[in-house]
Amino acid sequence: MFFKKEPDVVVALEVGTSKVVAAVGELRKDGSLYLLGVGEAKSSGVRKGEVVDFQTAQQTISEAVSDAENKTEVMVGEVFLAVTGSHITSRTVRVKTNTDDEDHMITPRHVEDLDALAQQQPIPADHAVIHQLLQHYYIDEKTRSTHPIGLNSHHLEATYQVIHGLENKLACAVRSVAELDVDVRGLALAPYASAQAILTRDQKNQGSVVIDLGAGTTDYVVYLDGAIIHTGVLGVGGDHMTQDISLGLKLPYQRAEMVKLKHGLLSPKGIHPDEQITLERDHHYDERSIYTHSLAKIMYARQWETLNMVREDLNQLNLWPRLSSGIYFTGGASQVRGLREVAKELFPVPVQLVQEFSFEGDLTFSRRPDLSTVLGLLQYAQNYETIHPKKAGFGRVVELFQNALSMVGLF
Questions:
Q1: What is the number of other CB atoms lying within 10 angstroms of the CB of residue 125?
Q2: Could you report how far apart the first and last alpha carbons of the chain are, in Å?
Q3: Comparing C-alpha atoms, which of 205, 199, 174 is closest to residue 188?
Q4: Per-residue pLDDT tens for 98-145?
């Protein structure tokens, strides 16, 4: 089997509640990213986006990586890993440094000083930083600047979005991959990765929210003026809706999942009370009928409750008039009928469902909202490699060691 050379390839890995996905992309000489293929495996040992059974989860990770290798003829030696979980939180910090030179000109050293000050901002003792994302620079305390170097000001300030989570949970996620002899090149918060596949620069500037509806979590990220200003992770997803259907209609869980995928809808409006769905007999279950109206009511209640939690969180930002680009839904659980109508009831901004992605390469996956995180993570990886080119020889070994330590908060 032919294997592509490592420097030309990036691999994104998402360990989700329902499936594990590994996407392989080629970095081309013209600066473009070309999707070579995607490997998948049914997930096990993962709950609400977090590893709860280490060995079982590790086995499914291995299966997804092997599937990707077989489909793309690329030997996977390192990955960028998407992380999620309700333990992850974020906050905005503002730091300031003085320009003490006689002309008060801002230099790269002042920018580096701000980065260092942001790193020193306190987070809970048992947490580790996932991202420290620059939002904006400010000169003369109020004037915003995109590129402050070379300008004159007595002070330089900056705001950062610091995203962090429980160190032991992040370390477990990294170790589940690293023990398979696959290096973790970098971490990225799942909704941040999804946004890279969905939002244009203009949409980030105009004010947008990306809501990723997964099996185990509902993740979201808010952009304004081109920068992330808020993130959130709820430990509620499509699996909880399936559980509601199972309990409400007295169905085994697997059959409830099938009913949701095949017949699911979120709006009971216009459904006749006597309308029924016939579930055919198979070698596991007897034939049975359920009321369509009852199914819709159960699904609507769960989806409304979940989205209302997001709305209540976003209400605290007081930004609705500025989110002119609106809300973008993605993720596997976003494909249920009636989602847009429910969302329009709750959110005072435009609502769109993202059903297709634009990229170069294998278009088999272009209409897979459930792959938004891993496809966006490939774009994140491309940008990361542009800013942080790989080292060679012993320097490469040291870099990997330092990256591994930093990812578990030890460096």
A1: 7
A2: 38
A3: 174
A4: 998 788 999 999 999 999 999 999 999 999 999 999 999 999 888 999
